[in-house]
Write a structure and sequence with these properties.
Structural class: mainly alpha
Radius of gyration: 45 Å
Strand order of the largest sheet: 1-2
Strand content: under 5%
Shape: rod-shaped
Number of strands: 2
Length: 667
């Protein structure tokens, strides 16, 4: 230190700490000359002493004017060193950078000025200190003093020029610092960071694209900034990177895909649109790299399909179609379970479009990876059943298609029908509002006869008789009126089971005939007048041949109250039967337990079915009595009127319970 005092006159040192800028400036010029002489003499020990003096006695001083003088003195010393400055930068740079955080704005301003002059002298030699300088500049970019900000911008431009022309810049050492700063919310800092990213990306020898995953999330953060300028700068940088990705043979799609998936659910519209656009390009370009991320990508796409912004919906749909068209194999890392889980979870989305696409995915997975999907059936089946209650008919129809694909084998078919009956039992609204749609569609997808036989078998053992009765009524109405079940109706016509029908009617007791039964009977009479039963009405033209049909119809007539509209309709119809039709003779070569088709004999044990019917009726009567007994109120002194039974019975038509298997060929 003594060498320094001997080298620099006391008057110069006094002026270096003067409050007047001009005196400090003149003193700095003196310092520059002194250092220049020492450099020429090669006396680096004295130069080191001078720099230590300027640092410790001035730049680190507690007095602001001393600090200002120290900064200008260090810059002057660097100028004096000229080409020899590099070997002293380890002493010169730290006190200058330290001054960037000085509480006095003028000191910070002079620190920028000092480093600017130092950088002009040493150029690329100070790259080794780049991270510290960058960190300091990052903070100064948001300085509260506009003069400091202005000085920092000038310094920043110079540093950028130096870095772009340097071959010593280490992007690997810089990226961690950049990544750390990318989450800062200050708009000035954000502009500073985007500026550096753009500049570094423009340097051919710097591979910013390879490190894009490290700061991509930060750029997406900036897309929702309140400043339009920052949003535009971030968007411009992202657009440039996306173009580079399209032309790059090797990109880390996986890490970036994770970021994009998160950003696709951003509350900011512009961020969502940019993220889904990137995902769209990734799906097209990513190939095998993206296979492990398909589930996450799908989880981002499906909600966007129902986005409130049309442009987002359009890109999301296109991406969804692209992704579904890729036939990846589990052996390649394609996680069927994860994809299935995402699609199933999205069935609870509030948006119909998302639920529809989720079902398309489940259906596609069943087509391509049936065994894998069925291994997760326990995890998804309940959700698929709940989806049958969806408010959208289109969703319900797609759910049924999925159920039908699952139910191709007998075990899963049985499980489906069992669960469906359970669902109808526990959710009466589903049966009322969607029962017909569900049954009709399943009959189309899985064969009507198969569906009705399975339902019939399950309902035979149903303990809840009221529910069984209600479901049978619904099934009968569907069977008798739906166009989808026309083939099954044609098959049932072959049985010509009119004698059996008549026997069923004759077996009814007074307990069976209540208000609800009469309501169902009224519906049946009205149905007999519809086009579906035109064939039956035409058979009355051969009453002698179909004598049991006539007897069954008269049996129904006898059960109806004379004052009812149904009685009048049926009586009018029977009056139209021509008298000549009774003279038609027909020799029946079959026993009463056989029915004949055009192609063979169908063996049906009607006696056994009549016994089953009578047993079921007995159970219903006992059930009705138990309910009636349980609901009898405590008698009062007043005489109460007898109450109607609340029992619900199945329709009393020949199709109330399907017979044993009907076939166009003899068994």
């Amino acid at each position: 230190m003594a060498d320094a005092f001997s080298a620099i006159p006391a008057a110069v040192l006094r002026n270096l700490s003067d409050k007047l800028y001009e005196k400090r400036k003149n003193a700095a010029i003196e310092v520059e000359g002194i250092v220049k002489q020492l450099t020429a003499a090669g006396d680096h020990d004295k130069i080191t002493a001078v720099i230590n003096l300027l640092s410790h006695e001035f730049a680190y001083s507690a007095q602001a004017n001393h600090r200002k003088g120290g900064l200008i003195g260090l810059a002057a010393a660097t100028v004096g060193l000229s080409a020899e400055a590099a070997q002293h930068l380890e002493q010169i740079i730290p006190p200058v950078i330290n001054s960037f955080s000085d509480q006095d704005s003028r000191v910070r301003y002079y620190a920028c000025e000092a480093l600017y002059n130092i950088a002009k002298v040493v150029r690329g030699e100070f790259i080794v200190h780049f991270n510290k300088i960058f960190d300091a500049l990052c903070k100064l970019s948001a300085d509260s003093d506009p003069n400091v900000q202005s000085a920092a911008h000038l310094l920043d431009r110079l540093v950028k020029d130096i870095v772009t022309e340097s071959d010593q810049f280490s992007i690997e050492e810089f990226i961690p610092l950049l990544r750390e700063r990318m989450n800062v919310l200050n708009p000035y800092v954000r502009q500073f960071l985007v500026g550096w990213i753009t500049v570094l990306d423009s340097v051919p020898d710097i591979d910013m694209l390879g490190f894009l995953p490290d700061f991509l999330d930060g750029l997406f953060n900036m897309l929702s900034d309140s400043s339009l300028e920052i949003r535009q700068q971030a968007d411009s940088a992202l657009s440039e990177f996306l173009e580079e990705i399209k032309n790059s043979p090797s990109v880390d799609y996986g890490r970036m895909a994770e970021i994009l998936v998160q950003r696709a659910s951003s509350p900011d519209e512009f961020t969502r649109w940019t993220a889904i656009t990137w995902i769209n390009e990734f799906v097209k370009l990513g190939g095998d790299q993206l296979v492990p991320y398909y589930a996450d990508i799908l989880g981002a796409i499906l909600p966007c399909i129902a986005d409130k912004e049309e442009k987002i919906r359009v890109v999301a749909r296109e991406t969804n179609d692209e992704l579904r068209a890729i036939e990846a194999d589990p052996a390649e890392g394609f996680d069927v379970g994860a994809i299935l889980s995402i699609a199933t979870r999205q069935l609870s989305s509030e948006y119909e479009a998302t639920r529809i696409e989720s079902l398309h995915w489940i259906s596609a997975l069943l087509n391509r990876h049936r065994s894998e999907v069925l291994s997760f059936l326990n995890d998804i089946f309940d959700t698929l059943l709940k989806a049958l209650s969806d408010p959208s008919d289109q969703v319900v129809l797609l759910v049924l298609e999925v159920h039908a694909r699952i139910a191709k084998d007998q075990y899963n078919f049985h499980q489906l029908v069992v669960f469906l009956v359970h669902k109808f039992r526990t959710d009466n609204t589903l049966l009322e509002k969607r029962g017909a749609l569900i049954i009709r569609r399943l009959c189309v997808l899985l064969d009507a006869e198969r569906v009705y036989r399975e339902l019939s078998t399950i309902l035979e053992g149903e303990a809840d008789l009221d529910f069984a009765s209600t479901l049978v009524q619904a099934l009968n109405l569907i069977l008798l009126t739906s166009s989808e079940l026309a083939e099954l109706r044609d098959l049932l016509k072959l049985s010509l089971a009119y004698e059996h029908t008549s026997s069923v009617i004759q077996s009814l007791t007074e307990e069976d005939i209540n208000v609800k039964f009469l309501v169902q009977l009224d519906k049946l009479i009205h149905l007999l007048e519809t086009p579906i039963f035109a064939y039956l009405r035409l058979q009355l033209l051969e009453a002698g041949r179909y004598i049991w049909l006539l007897k069954a119809l008269y049996g129904l007539l006898m059960l109806l109250p004379q004052q009812s509209a149904a009685f009048k309709i049926l009586r009018t119809r029977l009056k139209t039967v021509p008298s000549y039709s009774y003279s038609y003779s027909f020799t029946n070569n079959m026993s009463e337990h056989e029915s004949k088709s055009d192609n063979g004999i169908i063996m049906i044990n009607f006696g056994s079915w009549l016994q089953k019917f009578q047993q079921m009726q007995k159970l219903h009567r006992l059930h009705s009595k138990s309910q009636h007994t349980a609901s009898i109120p405590i008698p009062s002194k007043e005489v109460e009127k007898p109450q109607e039974s609340s029992k619900i019975l199945p329709d009393m038509n020949l199709l109330s319970r399907p017979p044993s298997r009907l076939s166009r060929k003899a068994p």
